[in-house]
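Example record used in the benchmark description.
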Amino acid sequence: MPNINIKAIQDIMRKDVGVDGDAQRLGQLVWILFLKIWDDREQELELLEDNYVSPLVDVDWRDAGEGRHSSDLRWRSWASDAEGMTGDGLLDFVNGELFPALKSMNVGYSNGNEASNAVRSRRMLISSVFGDAYQYMKSGTLLRQVLNQVEEQVDFNDSRNRHMFGDIYETLLKDLQGAGNAGEYYTPRAVTQFAVDMVAPKLGETILDPACGTGGFLACAINNIRSSEVKTAEDEALLQQSVKGVEKKPLPHLLCTTNMVVHGIDVPTNVSLDNTLSKPLREISGRERVDVVITNPPFGGVEEDGIENNFPLDFRTRETADLFLVYIMEMLKPGGRAAVVLPDGSLFGEGVKTRIKERLLEECNLHTLVRLPNGVFNPYTGIKTNVLFFTKGEPTEEVWFYEHPYPEGYKSYSKTKAMRIEEFEPEKTWWSNREESEQAWRVSIEDIKSRNFNLDISNPNAAGEVHEDPEVLLERFKAEQAAAADIRSQLKQMLGEALSRS
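Model output (structure tokens):
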């Protein structure tokens, strides 16, 4: 099966007068992909489960206060036939029945009969993801062409295509004008996989991404646990209950929900549409805390007024990444583990940033800090980033730094030269048998405190750099100061003599 041709689908949408710009094209395509992927998953469930009932069959819904009923809203009933509905008839169905029904369906009843708990939960999920979805296209003929392209190219019952979801989203995001303006960037899969591999979440542990975006970290965690630990239906049910995500923007939330369905999470109701930072820290209860946090919180962004009041006075700031770091420390159980992608500014900033780092090092063991090279997040931003690995419940005694190098022949990353998971093999080998090298060094907590908790520490072992004894450097500095003072004295004397002769 050929790779999905996103460009061909976008080119069709560009002909439609109702779709204004790349952002609307992305939104249009995502809800279409969701319904196609949902239908593919339902076909699989129909084979696996006896008496499976689709949440999109026999749907009661309301239209301007009047009760309505739709017999079948599944993709296969209206979209899959290339010669099926088109033109005004297709637009009338999508705008007048499909979208109103998905947004306002009565989740608990069908033809007046009470729905099962499984149907109810699936309808609640679908209704929530379509609450902020929009149908922009004005041409039913062009919409039919888009549906035909998706039907022809997308089959997520083919296991090979399940891995394409990240590629699809990455392609779409790279085409967006101004992508990343709000500090939100698609995390390269190599970074995502490395972070999850090193944190190594286990079956039965609760796993949270509080800024989950499209669900890349959660998908990696699901794949890792399922491939190594899930042996029974009970194991699978436990896995599905333990994965949690929060995303505050509707479009990434819909993408994440779709991604979870692609990865076999049947009803991903644990992925919520919300602002993680809107809940006061003091209201977080013990039962809400989690075993593992893996995330790349938005950085460079600023939160809305008032959000900082949900945090203790010493940690109040409007900078998103800093607030997330405080939140993560609070959300971890004792012994809980985290991998967090943060920009360089979080390492060397002062004021509130210093107090946050001080708390991190007092309450958690920041055992590893992997420094990523420039260009990892190209083309969205050139900001340098790091992956912080820490465990809650014991103070930091020393921090190991690892400077991730470019592959041989690279000067940066690009669309054609993206970061690959194979690049992290040296880190993985080093991880369990740590020694200093040209890439790795350690810094004691005493040294970090003497730097006023500045974690932006350069590699002292980098090739080509000579690092002399501090006492030698100090003596040289004193000698150079004395020489400079002598020169100033001579210049002053010469200037005085010149003035006396004039």
